[in-house]
From TrEMBL:
<dbReference type="Pfam" id="PF03972">
    <property type="entry name" value="MmgE_PrpD_N"/>
</dbReference>
<protein>
    <submittedName>
        <fullName>2-methylcitrate dehydratase PrpD</fullName>
    </submittedName>
</protein>
<dbReference type="InterPro" id="IPR045337">
    <property type="entry name" value="MmgE_PrpD_C"/>
</dbReference>
<dbReference type="InterPro" id="IPR042183">
    <property type="entry name" value="MmgE/PrpD_sf_1"/>
</dbReference>
<dbReference type="InterPro" id="IPR036148">
    <property type="entry name" value="MmgE/PrpD_sf"/>
</dbReference>
<dbReference type="InterPro" id="IPR045336">
    <property type="entry name" value="MmgE_PrpD_N"/>
</dbReference>
<feature type="domain" description="MmgE/PrpD N-terminal">
    <location>
        <begin position="5"/>
        <end position="242"/>
    </location>
</feature>
<dbReference type="InterPro" id="IPR042188">
    <property type="entry name" value="MmgE/PrpD_sf_2"/>
</dbReference>
<dbReference type="GO" id="GO:0016829">
    <property type="term" value="F:lyase activity"/>
</dbReference>
<dbReference type="Pfam" id="PF19305">
    <property type="entry name" value="MmgE_PrpD_C"/>
</dbReference>
<dbReference type="InterPro" id="IPR005656">
    <property type="entry name" value="MmgE_PrpD"/>
</dbReference>
<comment type="similarity">
    <text>Belongs to the PrpD family.</text>
</comment>
<feature type="domain" description="MmgE/PrpD C-terminal">
    <location>
        <begin position="265"/>
        <end position="429"/>
    </location>
</feature>
Length: 454
């Protein structure tokens, strides 16, 4: 039996009634977190560029755009997928290295709205989509991640699986959806060298391509049956090492969405372990950044590959700079959405402290990655005293969870100035299993509400 068939059989079999209560509740928190991130990002320039393009294209009014109004399913995937990724507060799964919310939920929400499906259908599809993309991501990580952005590549399978579930495709059709998702999977890390807008295109296209694959499968548009393990398939073409056991181990016996992590700081997740340590040292010892002689960060190699940037030139690039993020949290004590701005980027005290930050790979953390995303920080003061802190898990991981109330407060913080009554939006998502998706969309993403908040 091919891996695609195994996953297709799983996706077809799962029903809402099979989901444990904790999976239902966790899935709603994932949807809430996605929604807050999407609202927070909707006015950013790259998102407006995508919006202008889809408006030029036009499209049937099938699904709501986070920016206001309606357009086609495909256009909604593009706008809503991009918008939810840009402020760097979207969810993450450690061992697969995927931000599933930004690709699975935009596609699932657009299709569920267009096809008049209910909240239970959407919740089930989200849980299935997360399951599929996380398993594929685990199978190819970490080698795949050096060149390829897992959210863009593996995430495409997740959006396809979610939409296939919503469309009630059979096993054969779901295999087609996965096969054609895989042949579209792309997203290279080279954009990080320039701090370019491409990262938003990754999530936009992963949502779009997955939806496209599933919608074509509904019309019996065929695909490769061994897209993962075939000799010219995804694994062999795009990974130095892969583990097929990760695809099927405990499939149907567990729900990987429960392994999802939520961001607290508004930056690349790879910066968070060290940031947590800096924050703890500074707070517990009542230190001032003026006392610091140097900050030493010991962590895993991927942190250096992605975030070793001692001189970020834009606010967006600063979110991918371990040096900047460590300096920021040492000075401000926080690294929320409003803490990342042009003024703080150019601040002389931040720039000076950044020069005192060193980042090196350590075998302990390298060997533990990607199951653990850890770091050790040593801060040496001008008077010679040293303080150290280490963690295997940043805040927001299941091992150090952010509770429901913290995530609600995060949503309200992200949507400040974006919605009139954040509590109404929270409650709409938290009762999603009791309403139709279209009702939630009209309430949470409706045109009039968006117009009022602009």
């Amino acid at each position: 039996m091919t891996l695609s068939r195994r996953m297709a059989e799983y996706a077809v079999k799962v029903k809402y009634e099979d989901l444990p209560d904790e999976v239902v509740e966790y899935s709603k928190l994932c949807i809430l977190d996605w929604y807050g991130s999407a609202l927070a990002g909707k006015d950013e320039k790259p998102i407006q560029s995508i919006l202008e393009l889809v408006q030029e294209w036009g499209g049937n009014e099938q699904a709501t755009l986070i920016t206001g109004g309606k357009s086609s399913i495909g256009n909604a995937c593009l706008v809503n997928g991009a918008s939810s990724h840009i402020v760097e507060l979207d969810d993450i799964h450690k061992s697969s290295i995927i931000h599933a919310g930004t690709v699975v939920i935009p596609a699932a929400a657009a299709v569920a709205e267009a096809y008049n499906l209910n909240g239970k259908d959407l919740i089930t599809a989200v849980a299935v989509g997360y399951e599929i993309c996380y398993r594929i991501g685990e199978a190819v990580s970490p080698s795949h991640y050096y060149y390829w952005h897992n959210t863009a590549t593996c995430g495409t399978f997740g959006s396809a699986a979610a939409v296939a579930k919503l469309l009630k495709l059979n096993v054969e059709q779901t295999m087609y959806a996965l096969g054609n998702a895989g042949t579209q999977a792309a997203g290279l890390w080279e954009f990080i060298e320039d701090g370019a807008n491409t990262k938003q295109l990754h999530t936009a296209k992963a949502a779009y391509n997955g939806a496209l694959a599933a919608l074509l499968a509904k019309k019996d548009f065929t695909s490769a049956s061994r897209i993962l393990e075939g000799r010219r398939g995804f694994f062999n073409a795009m990974s130095e090492k892969y583990n097929t056991d990760k695809i099927t181990r405990n499939l149907g016996k567990e729900f990987k969405i429960l392994e999802n992590s939520f961001k607290i700081h508004a930056s690349c997740r790879h910066t968070h372990p060290a940031m947590d340590c800096v924050q703890t040292i500074m707070k517990e010892n009542s230190l001032s950044h003026e006392q610091i002689q140097n900050i030493s960060i010991q962590t895993y190699q991927t942190v250096l590959n992605i975030t070793d940037n001692p001189n970020p030139e834009t606010v967006y690039a600063s979110k991918f700079s371990s040096q900047f993020c460590a300096a920021l949290i040492a000075i401000k004590g926080s690294a929320s959405l409003i803490d990342y701005n042009e003024e703080i980027l150019q601040s002389p005290e931040v720039r000076e402290l950044m020069k005192k930050v060193t980042v090196v790979a350590d075998p302990y953390y390298e060997n533990a990655y990607p199951e653990k995303w850890g770091a050790k920080v040593v801060i040496t003061l001008n008077d010679g005293r040293t303080f150290s802190e280490a963690t295997d898990y940043p805040k927001g991981d299941p091992e150090k969870p952010a509770d429901r109330e913290e995530l609600i407060q995060k949503f309200k913080s992200m949507t400040l100035g974006k919605v009139w009554n954040a509590e109404e939006h929270v409650q709409a998502v938290l009762r999603l299993e009791k309403i139709d998706t279209a009702e939630w969309m009209s309430m949470a993403l409706g045109e009039e509400q968006c117009k009022q908040t602009q």
